[in-house]
Amino acid sequence: MTHTTLGGDAEVAVAGQVTLDFPDNRLLVELCGAFDKNLAKIEQQLDVQMIRRGNQISIFGTDDAVAAAGDVVQSLYDRLESGKAVEFGDVDRELRMGRGGGGDPSGLADSQMEMFKAGNVELKTRKKSVEPRTDAQKAYVLSLMNNELAFGIGPAGTGKTYLAVAVAVNKFINGEVDRIILSRPAVEAGEKLGYLPGDMKDKVDPYMQPLYDALNDFLPGKTLAKLIEEKRIEIAPLAFMRGRTLANAFVVLDEAQNATAMQMKMFLTRLGEGSRMVITGDRSQIDLPRGVSSGLTDAERLLKSVPGISFNYFTAKDVVRHPLVAAIIEAYDEDSKQALLKRAKP
After folding, report:
1. What is d(CA 60, CA 50) in angstroms, rounded to the nearest whole number?
2. Strand partners, 180
3. Residue range 40-74, pLDDT digits in tens
4. Which of 18, 50, 139, 237 has its CA 20 to 30 A from that of 264?
């Protein structure tokens, strides 16, 4: 078994054992986590043994596993050096994506991707700064910045809506748009909710709650309430968009897989001067009645080659919620693939 000692910012050589030196012991303690839980996670996932002594971490295992673990540890340390925190979800993301996220799936210019990787671009809001965590998220945010109409398509937990709302708030507080309009189709997710008491707002708010949750992450409560009262921020069901022209606004349609083809056409044609529009959805969670085609699938088919419209796609690797969410999505995806293979057999 060979032994290699590297500096904290060096590339890891493939070896049966490697030792990494880190100049800042305080950051190393943060990297390891309480009771070394982050190291334990890496050991479990990559089948390596990790030993910390002072400002060094030694990694033991097979050549490939040692190299992968070294990349993960180095990437997390680089994150801490740039002034960002390392949470348990960041460890899971690095383990799933690998250092650098497995390449840039978007075909973006190297200079643009390096801008993100260097940590120079963040979405600043009134309450917090938001950074895209995976390459697919980075490509998505760049698309939102550079295109008047953008689609984000992929499974739950990949940050499609959250990042879209963050970009909307960022552009709003920078004066680039006058209004934020967030919308969703009011479609029940598999169960019949029946008659809901109260006025119209009381009836539709349960459908819109995830959008309120995202806004509350970015704007102080009193500010948000005032902006909603002044109608500078609107949260409304998709059906309420008919007949409007949305100028100088940042418009987000969430859960677009539950819009019908007619509703999608109606929504897309609301785009006005000085506005930007984002459509997000998950094709695996269509709650429309049997026989009704999804407007998201229809729009993707018709608009894929239209200049000025971007399509960004996410997979289970981009999930930034609990690690089990990614495993659940992968299990369902695999089941769908097996079902398609069975149907394809003669």
Report:
1. 6
2. 233, 250
3. 989 988 889 999 888 889 999 888 888 888 999 99
4. 139
